[in-house]
Amino acid sequence: MTATIVVNSVEAMRREVAGWRSQGFKVGLVPTMGALHPGHISLVEEARKYAQRVIVTIFVNPAQFGPSEDFGKYPRTLEADVEKLSEVSADLCFAPTVEEIYPKGFSTRVEMDGPARAELEDSFRPTHFSGVATIVAKLLNQAQADVAVFGEKDYQQLLVIKRLARDLDMTTKICGAPTLRETDGLAMSSRNVYLSAEERRIAPRLHAGLEETARRIKAGEALSPALESGRAALSEAGFAIDYFEVRHADTLARVKSAQDGPLRLLVAAKLGATRLIDNLAV
Ligand code: AMP
Fold first, then answer.
1. Which residues does the record give as (R)-pantoate binding sites (predicted)?
2. CATH H superfamily, domain 5-177
C-alpha cells in the first residue's frame, strides 16, 4: 500500500506526469465522479495492466447533469475515496474544483453525433454526452496519459469516448472494462445508495431481465418478442422503463435480427426516484 498523492490543479498533475515520463513509466487514467466502489477500483487494476503509474480523477462534472438531475445530491466522499485509492496504491488522485476545470470565460463544448445520438441515453438526457465529451476531452488533454480506462457499465458512454478520441486524434488509448456486480447481479453504482431497502431488493431484476432476454435471443427467439417479454418482466417488477433495446454492439445501430450482430442489450429504468442503467452482451 502506497499513499495516493492528491492534487487539485492541472499544473500539479502535469508535473507528476512529467516526472514519471522522465523515468520511462507509462501512465494510465481512470476518470470518475468519486463515491468510489469496487467497480471503480477494478478500473484502477485494469489500468495497471497497461501502465506503471495510475491517475484517478474525481470530479462531479456539472456539465453532464441535466437541470432536473442529481448534481446537488450526488454523493461526495473524497476522504473515503482517497483511502480506497491508497489501499490499491493508485499513484495520484486529481480532484479539481469546478473553477479549476471551468474557469471564468470558459466557452467550449464538444458536440457529437454517431454514438452520442443513438436515441438511448441521449433521448432522456439530451445534454449529457456533450458534457461527458467536453470533460473527457479536457481530462485526456490535461493528463496526456498513455491509456484511459472506462467501464462497460456506461456502454454508450464508452463508445462515445472511443469515437471522441478517434475523431480528435487523441493519442491516449481508450480501453473498456467489464461491469462489476453485487452478488445478486445488480451493477455496482454510486447511485445505488439512493435505493430504499425495498427498491434494493427489486433492483437486481434489471440484470435478471437482461439475462433472460439474452437467453431467449440466443435460443433463437425473434428480437421483438424477446424484448417485449423483457420489458413486461421489468414493468411487472415495478420499474418505469426509459428504454430496453437491443443494438449493434460496436455502433449502437438498430438491428432487425440476431444475424445483424454482435448485439448488446441496453436498459435504463427508474425504480422510484432512482434511475438505473445496465447492459449485457448477447
Ligand atoms: P462514474 O463515477 O459513475 O462516472 O464512473 C466512473 C467510471 O467507472 C466510468 O468509466 C464507469 O463506467 C465506471 N464504472 C461505474 N460503475 C462500474 C461498475 N459497476 N463496474 C465497472 N466499472 C464501473
1. 64, 157
2. HUPs (3.40.50.620)
